[in-house]
Design brief:
- The chain is mainly alpha-helical.
- A three-stranded antiparallel sheet has the order 1-2-3. A two-stranded antiparallel sheet has the order 4-5.
- Strand 1 and strand 2 form a beta hairpin.
- Helix 1 packs antiparallel against helix 2, helix 6 packs antiparallel against helix 8 and helix 6 crosses helix 10.
- The longest helix is centred in the first third of the chain and has 21 residues.
- The N and C termini lie far apart (72 Å).
Length: 306
């Protein structure tokens, strides 16, 4: 089978499963790099389905100066492709099974702390003189920090997804097309109310986050890039470094683990991860305060018995 044909059929199957455009883009981008490599190397027939070819390809990508994370992404995309080919009976076995997963030394993700979040929020005007855009931006940064929602999940929210009385947000379609419920603090109800009262007229009342038309009105739904631009502007006004939308998700997770002592299993559900193992993989290394607190309590109990 031609590798180009294999990739096309693989992507079609993933699209039929309902995978997000971003996931499809990940698979296509990282797998197409492999196609370009074997084509340039003049690999004949089905020789591309060999472990040695994949190892040479990953070594080539590393030699190009790509980051460990990018090389790992190349490997993960090929693993998914070959596993699918094996399931469909198009190859007898996956050559990726014989290839060692590339090393990836994780670094601490960019995260916004509670003090930085408060400074950012307080720098956004509030009260009678605040505009609807100010109230919108306060709502965005508050929800990002206190719910850990992904930017796409946040912007997809409708007013009917928010239960102010129960203080619950229904995330209808998260990553992997899985829904979940996420609580939020009392204070956010007041921010939602102020935004709702000042928001300009819009023909679709269920849609929450609107973009500014430059003249005080709305011109459409706010897009992820618009949120990033807003955060750059607001962070600059607050004399803070730029915190991207995902840094709020990391900040939420670490604050809940360290400051709130939240169990990893509960955090996993709040974040919409597919498993607790995934949450541990991302955040276990930074659960330092919770570990230290548990250690100190145990040490104190032991010392009191001496």
């Amino acid at each position: 089978m031609l590798l180009e044909t294999a990739l096309s059929q693989f992507l079609t199957a993933r699209k039929a499963e309902g995978r997000s455009p971003r996931t499809l883009e990940f698979y296509e981008e990282n797998t197409r790099r492999f196609i370009d490599y074997v084509s340039a190397a003049g690999t004949q027939g089905s020789a591309w389905a060999r472990a040695t070819v994949i190892e040479e390809y990953l070594s080539h990508e590393r030699a190009r100066g790509l980051s460990e994370r990018t090389v790992l992404a190349r490997y993960q995309a090929l693993r998914a492709l070959f596993n699918w080919l094996k399931q469909r009976g198009m190859v007898d076995s996956s050559p990726v099974d014989s290839v060692q997963e590339p090393a990836y030394r994780r670094t601490q993700p960019l995260k916004i702390g509670r003090e930085q979040y408060l400074k950012l929020k307080e720098a956004i005007p509030d009260g009678p003189l605040a505009s609807w855009i100010d109230h919108r931006d306060r709502l965005i940064v508050s929800l990002l920090f206190w719910t850990g929602l992904r930017i796409g999940e946040l912007l997809a929210l409708r007013f009917s997804d928010i239960d102010g009385h129960a203080r619950l947000i229904r995330v209808a379609l998260g990553k992997g097309r899985k829904g979940r419920l996420v609580p939020f603090p009392h204070e956010i109800n007041a921010i939602i109310e102020r935004y709702s009262e000042t928001r300009p007229p819009w023909p679709y009342p269920e849609e929450i986050f609107l973009s500014n038309n430059g003249g005080g009105g709305a011109r459409g739904l706010l897009q992820p890039q618009g949120v990033r631009q807003m955060l750059k502007r607001r962070c600059n006004s607050a004399a803070l470094p730029y915190f991207n939308p995902h840094s709020f998700r990391h900040g939420f997770a670490v604050e809940m683990l360290n400051g709130g002592g939240l169990e990893m299993g509960i955090l996993s559900k709040l974040l919409g991860h597919s498993s607790v193992k995934m949450t541990q993989h991302v955040y276990a290394d930074w659960e330092t305060a919770a570990l230290r607190r548990a250690y100190d309590q145990a040490e104190e109990a032991i010392s009191s018995e001496l």
